[in-house]
User: What shape does this take?
Amino acid sequence: MVAVFQKTKPTIIPQKLNPLAVFATCLGGAIRDPLSGRAYVYQGMRITGCANPLQPFESTLAGKLPQRYITTTAAKGFSSYGNQIGVPTGEVREYYHPGYVAKRLEVGAVIGAALVLLYTVKVLPLAI
Assistant: This one.
């Protein structure tokens, strides 16, 4: 028998932070729980939301990073961490909407499995 684990780590990050480190830790946060349950994590998923990355740099809001920079750097951070730990990303979706101008949506998810034989269940007798 096999137990299947799934863990999702949603993150909404202000744009002024370092996208590479922030989105690498998004995958790292998702992978910790299945690994702590002695599961083999075999697939990752990444869903993101941002404003139009093709907009000119001049139209970037004051004090914010350009959408193109955030999008490409976040993808590098997610894939870099996934490559370091050996988890392939099976699904990548990016949604573009003007509502993500000020904050970006990032969801990292992983799927893992473990043999049920690794788990022991103790049944304690009822005290009467």
In short: The chain has a mean pLDDT of 76.
